[in-house]
Amino acid sequence: MRVSVVGCGAISHNLLRVLKSLKGIDISSVVDIKKDRAGAAAKKYGCKAYYDFEAMLSEDKPDCIHICTPHYLHVPMAVAALEKGIHVLCEKPCAISEEGLSEIRKAQNKSSANFGVCFQNRYIESVTAVKDIIDKKLFGKVISARAFVHWSRGEDYYSDDWHGKLSKEGGGVTVNQAIHTQDLMRYLIGSDTVSVTAHTFNDHLKGVIEVEDTVHALFEYENGVTALFNATTAFHDNRPFMIDIICQRATLRIEGSNAYIIILGKVKKLRSKSKADSIGKSYWGNGHSPLIKDFYNCIENNKSFPIDAYEGGKAVEEFLAIYKSSESGEKICLK
User: What's the pLDDT at 302?
Assistant: First the structure.
């Protein structure tokens, strides 16, 4: 299968390393408007460099593309590929507006190709272990949850032409860094979000960025569970994300790649059955390899990828509700 990686920034190197290791995958091209980045990636992975997305689609004719570009480009690029029957695995978020989300869902419905969103943290061992316990109700039903993302992003991070700009990034910590943990809460709780009450702030980069660096939110889910969510990029360093799922007879805690069962104050660490490839920064989550393998397995077996425009788009609906709630001061109902 011929594959092209679109966008040669930091996250693309995780994907390229995984793709290079997969049998039956031929990295045919990379694309970036910055010629030095495209050229360096092409040289490293032995493929052709393109500097124009449309030219790559028409000349290279890949079977699948991986979209690693700035957020505002995700929808038009994904739609263009899907209309040509090209499979698409897109970095989060798949859209940054209601209109964009609707457009990408329509394109998925009309296409013969698979579409997936890269929420890699669903695939890390700590998450799969806790998800299995929850689904089997080993400690009773879920009562509530809380989650924290405390990372550091300074002024240098926003020195490019799109980070920190509302029209291109779509938001700040909520849509960029914390969206993975936001997605995990809903996934682990096993129920769709019905309402969001939220507040967003810019605590440490006023005048530097147009978006928020801190968010606090209360989520309510269809099954009656409520969850608190706190995320910031104003911390002094990058800590692993943390999620507590409070069940009737125990608390299940995820701290990055580690998971614990807490009963009456006693903590027991869960042992992983396998070791995922360690790719990228540790606090990102090391689930890229199993997610990408699952995506290609779905293509090979003519199955829909589970995190498609509808499932992956739920995180978009949630962060848009966060911004609406913060602006209005009101609870926003999604259903």
Answer: 96
